[in-house]
Write a structure and sequence with these properties.
The protein has 140 residues and is mainly beta. The protein has 2 helices and 9 strands; from the N terminus they run E-E-H-E-H-E-E-E-E-E-E.
């Protein structure tokens, strides 16, 4: 076990097709990545451990080491009556559910068939191999 440290870094997250899923550069606010507190996968931490201020590093992680595999148990089939009447239910719409301790869990509508709505509570990037392009701005 090593001590924890944090990296402030600009990060671009890209999918297999090269499209950008997220980028801190758009907001101009770097992300804080905490190493050693178990918030990141061991494979992700291994890519970050040796980085210093000013370093740039690009790497790809398999789905299991990035945002996890898609879990079929996180796909739910719900009746339309469980949603607000004014909510336009269609494929791709993100809906929010109450989670433990008052947290919110986002779900993506995958299909609407009659009165049945298929909602996927997996992380939107689950099941994808992800490329990270990181530039360390500060080590804390």
């Amino acid at each position: 076990m090593y001590s924890t440290k944090s990296l402030l870094c600009h990060m671009e997250i890209m999918l297999e097709d090269g499209s950008t899923a997220d980028s801190t550069k758009a907001s101009g606010k770097p992300a804080r990545l905490n190493i050693g507190d178990n918030s990141l996968s061991p494979a992700f931490e291994a890519e970050l451990e040796a980085l210093k201020e000013g370093d740039k590093h690009k790497f790809t992680l398999q789905a299991v080491d990035a945002f996890g595999e898609s879990n079929p148990d996180a796909i739910h089939y719900l009746d339309k009556t469980r949603f607000p009447a004014d909510l336009k239910l269609e494929e791709g719409v993100i809906v929010s559910f109450a989670g433990p301790g008052g947290s919110e869990i986002p779900g993506i509508v995958r299909e609407v068939a009659g009165d049945s709505v298929t909602v996927d509570l997996n992380h939107p990037l689950a099941g994808h191999n992800i490329t990270f392009d990181i530039e360390v701005t500060q080590v804390l």
